[in-house]
Structure formats: structure tokens, C-alpha cells
Specification:
Helix content: 55-70%
Mean pLDDT: 90
Largest sheet: 2 strands, parallel
Radius of gyration: 16 Å
Strand content: 5-15%
Distance between the termini: 22 Å
Low-confidence stretches: none
Length: 122
């Protein structure tokens, strides 16, 4: 994922965009911490409706991008794992795509999955 595509992304949810943003920030930060901070602010401004993304990207000022990414991946995994415990042999409804919801489905065995569609940014 490059910066331009990340800024134009209106299809994925917060967790997917956040992980890709952190991947970019890890690379940029190796060269210049201030560039990474500026890029994080730009991404947060473009995706300002994603409160979790905005708040997480602010951490780049006090933590390394790789450290933040590890914390986010750990949090996403445990969120998916906890959700998956409720899905076995049950019907579930989800709105659109969510990386955490997708991972929880893969970790469980729901009876049926109903997917509703939202169109963020439209």
C-alpha cells in the first residue's frame, strides 16, 4: 500500500487502514521521525471520522511506529479471539467489512453469516 492509495481508501475499515498506515510509518520513521509524524497527521486528517485511527496515530509522537503496530496487532488479535467465542454455532450479523470481524469468523464456526453493507465516505 502506498501513501496515495491509503489516503484514497474509502472501502476498508479502521483496523485495515491503520495497519497499512503503520507499515508505511515504520518505513518512513527509519529515515526521519519528523516525516513520520507529519505523515501520521496527514493520514489522520484524511480519515478523521475514524476515531481509533486518529487517536492511535497521535502516539507516533511518543512511541515508535513498530511499537505501536505491535500493540495494535495484539489488541486486534485478542478482540477477534474474544468475539469468536460468541460465534460458534450461532448466526451472526455484521455491517460491511471489518478486519477484526473477519479474523473472529476465521477463529470460530458460525452457523450463518449475514453481511450488511455500509458505504463510508459517500
Amino acid at each position: 500500500m502506498n501513501v496515495e492509495n491509503l489516503l484514497k481508501d474509502r472501502k476498508r475499515g479502521c483496523s485495515g487502514i491503520l495497519i497499512d498506515a503503520l507499515d508505511l510509518l515504520v518505513k518512513v520513521e527509519k529515515e526521519d521521525k519528523n516525516k513520520a509524524i507529519n505523515l501520521a497527521e496527514k493520514i489522520a486528517k484524511v480519515h478523521e471520522s475514524m476515531a481509533g485511527l486518529v487517536k492511535t496515530l497521535k502516539l507516533i509522537k511518543t512511541k515508535s511506529a513498530i511499537e505501536i503496530k505491535k500493540e495494535v496487532e495484539k489488541s486486534n488479535y485478542f478482540s477477534a479471539l474474544n468475539l469468536s467465542k460468541f460465534l460458534n454455532d450461532k448466526n451472526m450479523i455484521t455491517i460491511s467489512r471489518s478486519g477484526i470481524v473477519e479474523k473472529s469468523i476465521m477463529l470460530s464456526n458460525p452457523a450463518k453469516i449475514y453481511v450488511l453493507i455500509s458505504r463510508p465516505g459517500k
